[in-house]
Amino acid sequence: VQKSWPTTPNNKREIIHKNTTFKTKIQTAKQTGQIKAKLLKRTNLKKKALKLLA
After folding, report:
1. Cβ neighbours of residue 11 under 8 Å, at least 6 residues apart?
2. What is each CA distance from 1 to 4, 5, 38, in whole angstroms?
3. What is the per-residue pLDDT across 1-54, written as a single tens digit (0 to 9) for each?
4. H/E element, 4
5. Spatial separation of the C-alpha atoms in residues 43 and 27, rounded to whole Å
6. Burial, 51: exposed, middle or buried (Cβ in 10 Å; 0-12, 13-18, 19+)?
7. How many angstroms separate the CA atoms of 15 and 9, rounded?
8. CB-CB contact of 18 with 24 (8 Å)
9. Sign of torsion over alpha carbons 14, 19, 22, 24
């Protein structure tokens, strides 16, 4: 029985590499999302403060 692709160490490494890059992409996306949320909160607070001052 022949497998569709040989399970060489190099192939496994590639798969692991793909998984890790995907995970890091998700992590960075989450981090940027959090930063954006913080910035949005800050700008909203500033707008509210300006409205109160005006």
Report:
1. 5
2. 10, 12, 56
3. 556 656 666 777 777 778 888 888 888 888 898 988 999 999 998 888 888 876
4. none
5. 24
6. exposed
7. 10
8. no
9. negative
